[in-house]
Design goal:
The chain is of the alpha/beta class. Helices cover 26% and strands 21% of the residues. It is built from 6 helices and 10 strands; from the N terminus they run βαββαβααββαβαβββ.
């Protein structure tokens, strides 16, 4: 059964953040809030956790397109090829925020991402995922929680999310109702921003 931790953005309890980080370090799967929708996450360097995340999404890991959640832009060079000034300016002006930026990947990607030519980088404007990544010491892999309802595309109620994923994840972070609009996906691989999905963010 998943453990529910109530961690609110205005006063995140450090002991709870530490508990989440320990769970991630052991290969656990978490559900966490962001500045857009609730999402599933795991340690980017733990291949078994990554496989489990793909299994929950009913896909093979090599076909998965999991975003990389950072707490700032300091991890960029770990995953991406050198970025020119114009692209870096776009990133700097829009993070943290409700965007996923597609960038050219380098050859040092974690095992689960090997062979991928591009990578989605996300820096949510929400203290909970920022603190988790900061304390973990490196980014987490992430994928949005979709809703089965055709009208409501994303699940917003953490209690209902906890019920649905009770036996699939280790921790559900309840941070109040989430948003029902995902991040805007922006492809920066050509140097010019191309919107792949209109979401909450406006460039």
């Amino acid at each position: 059964m998943a453990k529910i931790l109530k961690i609110y953005p205005d006063n995140p309890q450090e002991s709870f953040i530490v508990e989440v980080v320990k769970t991630l370090q052991k290969g656990g799967i978490i559900i966490y809030p962001s500045d857009t929708v609730y999402a599933l996450g795991c340690d980017i360097n733990n291949i078994k956790a990554m496989e489990k995340l793909a299994h929950i999404k009913k896909m093979k890991l090599d076909k998965a397109q999991f975003s990389i959640i950072c707490n700032d832009l300091s991890h960029l060079s770990d995953f991406t090829r050198p970025i020119d000034t114009a692209v870096f300016r776009i990133l700097k002006n829009n993070v943290p925020g409700p965007f996923t930026f597609i960038l050219e990947a380098n050859k040092n990607l974690p095992l689960a991402y090997k062979g991928k030519k591009t990578i989605g980088i996300r820096v949510p404007d929400h203290p909970v995922p920022q603190l988790i990544v900061q304390k973990l010491g490196h980014p987490i892999a992430s994928t949005s929680i979709k809703d089965d309802d055709e009208i409501l595309e994303y699940s917003t109620d953490p209690e209902l999310i906890a019920e649905k994923y009770d036996h699939l994840v280790d921790i559900v972070i309840d941070s109040g109702y989430g948003d029902n609009m995902a991040s805007t996906i922006v492809d920066l691989t050509s140097g010019e921003p191309e919107i792949l999905r209109e979401g909450k963010g406006t460039l």
